[in-house]
Specification:
Number of domains: 1
Order of helices and strands: HHH
Structural class: mainly alpha
Number of helices: 3
Mean pLDDT: 81
Low-confidence stretches: none
Strand content: under 5%
Largest sheet: none
Helix content: 55-70%
Oligomer: single chain
């Protein structure tokens, strides 16, 4: 990254962040078949996300 971009980084507000997460989730659902076996690491990450959503 160029120094200019590093200094100009902005944080995302909650609404924007949530929209991005929702869009990624939708794409994952579309690309993953229901019978897809998840790796242990991916399963762990998804479990972590579910716990954070409930908190």
């Amino acid at each position: 990254m160029s120094p200019r971009l590093e200094n100009d980084m902005e944080t995302l507000d909650y609404k924007t962040s949530r929209s991005i997460c929702d869009a990624i989730g939708e794409r994952l659902q579309q690309s993953m078949r229901p019978d897809t076996v998840l790796s242990d690491r991916l399963r762990q990450l998804l479990d972590d996300l579910r716990r954070r959503d409930r908190a």
